[in-house]
Automatic annotation (TrEMBL):
Signal sequence bounds: none
InterPro entries (alphabetical): OMP_efflux, TolC-like
UniProt-annotated location(s): Cell outer membrane
Organism: Alkalitalea saponilacus
Annotated Gene Ontology cellular component terms: cell outer membrane; efflux pump complex
UniProt keywords, alphabetically: Cell outer membrane, Coiled coil, Membrane, Transmembrane, Transmembrane beta strand, Transport
Protein name listed in UniProt: Outer membrane protein TolC
GO molecular function, one term: porin activity
Amino acid sequence: MKIHVIVLFLMMPFLAYSGETLSLYEARQLAVSHNRKIKQAELERQASGLQTRSAFNNFLPRFDFEGGYQLRGKKYSLLENDMFLPVIPYEGIDGSSGTFNSALAPGAFAMHPETGQPILNADGTPVFQNYAWLPQSEVEVGSKHNWQFGVSMRQPLYMGGKIRRGHEIAQRAESISEAREELTIMEVIARTDELYWQVVQLCEMLSLTNSYIEMLENLEQDMENLFREGIVTRNQLLQVQVRKNEVKLSAIQVENGLELSRLALNQFVGLPFYDRAELSETFSPEMLKMEEGLYTDLALEQRQELRMMNEAVTIAEKLVQVERAEMMPAIGIMAGYSVSNPNPYNGFAREFGGDYSVGVGISIPIFHFGEKRNQVAQAKIARQQQQLELEETREMVQLQVSRELLSFHESKSRLDLANLSLEQAEENLRVTNNLFNEGRATTRDVLEAQAHWQDAHATSISAKAAHRLAYTNLQKAIGDLKISDNQ
């Protein structure tokens, strides 16, 4: 379909300014290239394609960069106040245990001058001979200006199948968008055919009405000559004139209807409102040469509605699998490298220092009071609903194909009978005119023969239009309505 759209846009200037005959094929091209619903469907398809690509990206690792700056008014203080630390002689350290042994360094404690025993403080512990003063300000860390930067990577290893199912769902959704675009194009083509053949029908009706008026004017001229010669009465002349006026009024109505139909067609296909391109009356449908039962099989294979419904059923099945995956473990790896200033790896010096990190994470659902099981059951119900809707749609498609096939055959029979009646009406008019010229038929007989001739032509024109639309509807019903149909 992309190739078709490109060709349409390239051909638009030539079609729009041809100024000659606008064929049904050209009208379809213009309508498809101009229609905004088709453009919306195309944009929706493009968005679905991007969504599919985004879903595939979930298989790949994610790389992120983070950075920050923080201005602090105070530093971190590791002490509540100044501290005095006891000074322990080296010889007081027990080599085997690495702890202080007072027996190895008896001079480490302050001795009472009278008792010769270590002086004890309020909590009963000995007081050391020497202490080192540690001011609170010397153990403050941090800086007024703080910087931190880092790069991280996260890669899912096992998610219970959620990522794969999500990608498959996105692919199915993209297929639905493509089918919806094709369906929109088909609807636009069907509407174009309806407007096109309506204009053709009214053109033929107007031509018929003008021919009828010309016929009545010729009869009126003959009647005036006969009236002056006294062969016919004034009442007979007035009958012809009244009938001519009635047909002229009908011609005005047909002209107005034709004008409105042209405007509607021009608007739909994107031509200037008051364009007067001639329309082709050529109609030679190429029906598929196969048994009637095969039309239904073809429709079940080609109809875009069924394609969309089948994809919806598949999506519903994938959603069941997604809900089941929620009950499975999720495993992922992560890695990163970060730098910061002050440097926490070098005494919080005012410099940048960094380090890497690697880790594995796992999440296992254990007990959620049946929440996951209920979600799986809901997804199964949604799948059953989609399946039932698909079955109903299949039945409706079969019914529609049968109805449109019967309508097509009926329209063909009506057209054949209308053409037969037209031949008979033309012969009846010829015979009546001959009898009138010989004086063996009245004015009323001629008017009635002309009216029958006009009705037969109008019926034939309507039957042709109905047959053309019946063919379009049948092609649409079997999903085979395309721009390039030979008609």
